[in-house]
Amino acid sequence: MESRGTKREAGKIEVAEPWNKLPRPAPSLPTDPALYSGPFPFYRRPSELGCFSLDAQRQYHGDARALRYYSPPPTNGQSPNFDLRDGYPDRYQPRDEEVQERLDHLLRWLLEHRGQLEGGPGWLAGAIVTWRGHLTKLLTTPYERQEGWQLAASRFQGTLYLSEVETPAARVQRLTRPPLIRELMYMGYKFEQYMCADKPGVSPDPSGEVNTNVAFCSVLRSRLGNHPLLFSGEVDCTDPQAPSTQPPTCYVELKTSKEMHSPGQWKSFYRHKLLKWWAQSFLPGVPNVVAGFRNPEGFVCSLKTFPTMEMFEYVRNDRDGWNPSVCMNFCAAFLSFAQNTVVQDDPRLVYLFSWEPGGPVTVSEHRDAPHAFLPPWVRSTCKDGGCWEPADSFPASPPAQPCPRTSTRWWYSGSSSSDWSDSRKRSRSISFWICILSRSFRATWAHPLPHLAVLARWKL
């Protein structure tokens, strides 16, 4: 009698591979909103660590020289009548989108300020470093039905870095962008020119060139669940008349949208566009989005302020609307998925997380070009125990102008420090059970993260 674990073919007996030697399917993360509908996770209110600016040539400056000041027109109930087509294309200098900046500007800021981080340089060892825009894509993924994404991830000296990779579909869309879309993009920047001044107390000057190379970026620290976050995002302007002048609560996000005429158009706006506005502003703690609604001729016919913390109210009773808890729970699940996947500390090793609407997040492993994104000057600077000290070959920044800073510690949930302690205990408990479930589910080739909703119901 043949022993169990063998198979016969063409008169020969072959020993079957043990189950644990068989190739396993690549891990994946589902994106179904129903899996992430638990309680809202802990999210520490972001605090600004610093800032940097990019000039008209896209050169880095470690100061706030590009910060603009919110200066809306005194409409007195009348239409502002901004001509968003004015200056197009003669006074338009768009950024070269072929240049892949990746995390370079944020890494430059880290090189200059690592020793000044609260908690010391060692705080970064367990943190996730990325752009705000990448986190925004994660928040909106459960409800996105059109555009996929790819995120490259590498671990270096304990820190997990996430950098977006342009998908083939996105590249084709960018290269074949119709003239109308390019003009609409210009209108968004032109609206900022009408609403912002270079100095406080000064009126905006919309007669100048619209140069999208110029940017002011805030660098923020936060925590989602048990994931420390350090991320940066572009800021449109600061409001000198805000109740608090401490960033990021003094910042204002500016947006444009087409004029709405029917309840159906407003419902679609609340379901789709307002979701992206909420995600983009909630992450860095920007309290208000000011929208300019344009008519078909390209003139702004009305202005409306959307407080970030009130946006969900527009879809709360809409069965097809979005839910902030789903967005944040999925983001937390993805960060856990990435942390558990990218375990090897090697900047040349890249894990590419890919997602297309209707499917799960998948991951593939790559080495070196073209996916490696941590620049050589970071790796060479951090060798031989001299991590993050300025390299001789790295140009020094010009004399820095002070950035708006805040040392206030508070949390988005409005919780006290004791609540924060309880949240950390819950996070550690959930992490423990994720670890246990991971070991159990590996035997069945499943991933434990979809069961986070179950863990939440256990109130761990």
TrEMBL record:
Its cofactor is Mg(2+). Binds 2 magnesium ions. It comes from Bos indicus x Bos taurus. It comes from the Eukaryota. It is found in: Nucleus. This is Decapping nuclease. Residues 1-15 have a biased composition (Basic and acidic residues). Keywords: Hydrolase, Magnesium, Metal-binding, Nuclease, Nucleotide-binding, Nucleus, RNA-binding. It holds the Pfam family RAI1. Decapping enzyme for NAD-capped RNAs: specifically hydrolyzes the nicotinamide adenine dinucleotide (NAD) cap from a subset of RNAs by removing the entire NAD moiety from the 5'-end of an NAD-capped RNA. One of its GO terms (biological process) is NAD-cap decapping. Belongs to the DXO/Dom3Z family. InterPro entries: RAI1, RAI1-like_fam. Residues 1-34, 67-88, 393-423 are annotated as: Disordered. Residues 405-420 have a biased composition (Low complexity).
